[in-house]
């Protein structure tokens, strides 16, 4: 019974991810596109929860769904000077369409040619968040890289604010 529930939840979240991505691509309003991206991030976090990747799901929610979405929305709201700037034109590019089809073809080829290496087995139990936290904040852990990424996000926000203030006296 639980496998059926997991399968149905996975299908719903996968459709939400793909639907949100399509909505983000085809909306003309930039703010609406940011909210569609937020929906994709939350649905992807739900997929990670179903796959028992709790830490990755929490990072997906905290970093992408909250921090990047808020940064994007505030940057958009700060940089829009007129209401007309929020509407983007619908330009069709034949080159972009050809590159998109070419990329999809390469991805299908790679996925069909992939074969899993023999002899690799998954661990019996997934690692828990506490063990990952100890590894993350160890002396040679990944804490510095996370701090650098947060610094880059802050610099991007300050740059967006500075860019909008440039022409004003």
What does this structure look like?
With 169 residues, the protein is an all-alpha fold. The chain has a single domain, classed as Four Helix Bundle (Hemerythrin (Met), subunit A) (Up-down Bundle). 73% of the residues lie in helices and 0% in strands. The protein has helices at residues 2-26, 30-50, 54-79, 94-113, 129-136, 143-165. Helix 1 packs antiparallel against helix 2, helix 2 (30-50) packs antiparallel against helix 3 and helix 3 (54-79) runs parallel beside helix 6. The longest helix is centred in the middle third of the chain and has 26 residues, at 54-79. The protein is globular. The termini are far apart.
Please render the helix and strand layout as text.
Layout: H1 2-26, H2 30-50, H3 54-79, H4 94-113, H5 129-136, H6 143-165
Helix pairs in contact: 1-2, 2-3, 3-6
Quick structural gist:
This protein is an all-alpha fold and 169 residues long. The chain is 73% helix and 0% strand.
Strand content: under 5%
Indicate the percent of residues in helices. over 70%
Q: Give the count of helical stretches.
A: 6
CATH class equals Mainly Alpha
Shape: globular
Taking the alpha carbons of the first and last residues, their distance comes to: 66 Å
Which spans of ≥5 residues are poorly predicted at pLDDT below 50? none
Question: Number of folding domains?
Answer: 1
CATH architecture: Up-down Bundle
H-E order: HHHHHH
Provide the CATH topology.
Answer: Four Helix Bundle (Hemerythrin (Met), subunit A)
